[in-house]
Amino acid sequence: MSKTVSSDHIIGILPARWGSTRFPGKPLHLIAGKPLIQHVWERCLSADMLSEVVVATDDERIFHAVEAFGGKAVMTSPEHPTGTDRLAEAAKHLPHATHILNIQGDEPLIDPTLINELARALLDDPSLHMVTAANPLDPGDTAVADPNVVKVVLKKNGHALYFSRSPLPFFRNPVEGLPVLRHKGIYGYRRDFLETFVTWEPSPLEKAESLEQLRALENGASIRVLHTEDTSPGVDTPEQAREIERILSSSSNQV
C-alpha cells in the first residue's frame, strides 16, 4: 500500500512479536479465517492519512505470513527492552518517514478515523512531540482500579500531565465534570523525537509504573491526548480472540 499526503510521509507501524506469556504466536492466530495481524493491517489500510503500513516483527514466521497476504514487514531484533525501541529500529528501514504511528498489532477493530485524527494532530502542530488517545471511563467501573488499565490525567491544554496504573485521579473529594480517562496504547511521533526518545535512559517513574510514556514526560516532552469514543478491544488471550471472532461474524451478518 502506498498513499501520498503532501510532502509528509506518515507511516503506520504494527509491532508483532511471536513471544507472549499468555498467548504465544498471537499475531498469526486465525480469526474468521485470517491471521490476527492481517485484520489489524486491513483496518489500517482504511486510514487515508497513512502513506504506508508496515509490520515490525522479530519472527520470520510472522514476516513471511505478512508478505503472503500482501503486506510489508521488516525484521527487528528480539532483544529490544521496549516496544518503542522496536519501533525506532523499524523506522530505520523507512528513511522517508517523517511521522510514525505506533498502532497495536493486537487491536483488529481499531477505528481508522482515530488513526487519521492522530496523524492530523501531528501535521497541524509541528511543535508537538507525541500524540495519543484516551476514552472516558465510568468512575465506578472496575477498570479504574485495574493495574492493567492505564489511566491518564490532562493539563488544561489537553496535553498529558501523568499516566498511571493506579486510580487516576484519586477522588478524595467529588469534583463535578472531572473525567476518568482510559489511555489507549496508540502513539504518534515526529521522527526526530522518536530517534531522540530511544537515546534516553529509562526514567525513575517509567521503571516504577512500567510505562514508557513517562520517560517522555520526565524529559519535558509534550504529549497531546485526543479524546475518543473508540473502545475497541485488544486480543491478549485465546478467549478474547474468540470474542473478536463473534463480533466480526455478527457484523458480517448485519451487512
TrEMBL record:
A family per Pfam: CTP_transf_3
Residues that span the membrane, as ranges: none
EC number: 2.7.7.38
Keyword Transferase in annotation: yes
Main EC class the enzyme belongs to: transferase
SUPFAM superfamilies associated with the record: Nucleotide-diphospho-sugar transferases (SSF53448)
Catalytic reaction equation(s): 3-deoxy-alpha-D-manno-oct-2-ulosonate + CTP = CMP-3-deoxy-beta-D-manno-octulosonate + diphosphate
Places the protein is found: Cytoplasm
Pathway: Nucleotide-sugar biosynthesis; CMP-3-deoxy-D-manno-octulosonate biosynthesis; CMP-3-deoxy-D-manno-octulosonate from 3-deoxy-D-manno-octulosonate and CTP: step 1/1
Record key words, sorted: Cytoplasm, Lipopolysaccharide biosynthesis, Nucleotidyltransferase, Transferase
GO molecular function: 3-deoxy-manno-octulosonate cytidylyltransferase activity
Secretion signal, residue range per the UniProt entry: none
Functional note: Activates KDO (a required 8-carbon sugar) for incorporation into bacterial lipopolysaccharide in Gram-negative bacteria.
NCBIfam families: kdsB, PRK05450.1-3, PRK05450.1-5, PRK13368.1
Homology family: Belongs to the KdsB family.
Name under which the protein is recorded: 3-deoxy-manno-octulosonate cytidylyltransferase
Biological source species: Luteolibacter algae
